[in-house]
Amino acid sequence: MDREWVAEESIAVTAEPDEVYAAVTDLRRMKEWSPELFAVWVRGRRLREGTRFVGFNRIGWRVWFTNCQVSAAVPGEVFAFRVSSFGMPVALWGYRIEGVGGGSTRLTEYWEDLRRDNRGAGLVSLLGKVFTGVPAERRAEVNRAGMRTTLERVRATLETR
Fold it and tell me: Are strands 62-74 and 6-13 parallel, antiparallel or unpaired?
């Protein structure tokens, strides 16, 4: 199986871009939507570029944490963060938010595997498999399924408020 290095999924949401941005940047609520994340610890009250947080994740009996740092935070447009483990780059996660008119927004969740072309990439890939049970070659597939679940849950929350 060839390894995929990027993945993304999109969904249309009946909500304004600022409302969608507010939802996906409310990190403490992300546990309601993500099938892996179960807790978040955020440093500080204001979310902006440079803000650090720790995500606590679970697949089955496996539990792990990730260190994250916000790399883009533009209200109504984009929110992204870099994930590292033991100081080594793991991934870039983000959300693109595009108003499409009529009170609708296209919300895209994306992921890029950063476990390549750097010192420690092999080690952090091995650690990923040990902690998550998912080999690097399957991570894009697993993430796509999780993205679809997350996006559907965000949409349901925003459209039923």
Answer: unpaired
- Is the model's pTM score more than 0.90? yes
The backbone region for 105, taken as left when phi is positive above 0, alpha when psi lies in -120 to 50, beta otherwise, is beta
Angle between helices 139-159 and 17-24 (to 10 degrees): 120
Residue located via tokens 């796509």: 144
**Which residue type is seen at 76?**
G
What's the Cα-to-Cα distance from 97 to each of 19, 29, 74, 81, 84, rounded to whole Å? 10, 18, 10, 15, 24
Cα-Cα-Cα-Cα torsion 12, 108, 24, 101, nearest 10 degrees, comes to -40
Q: Is the pLDDT of residue 126 over 80?
A: no
Three-state SS letters, 38-49: EEEEECCCCCCC
Q: Which 8-state DSSP code applies to residue 26?
A: -
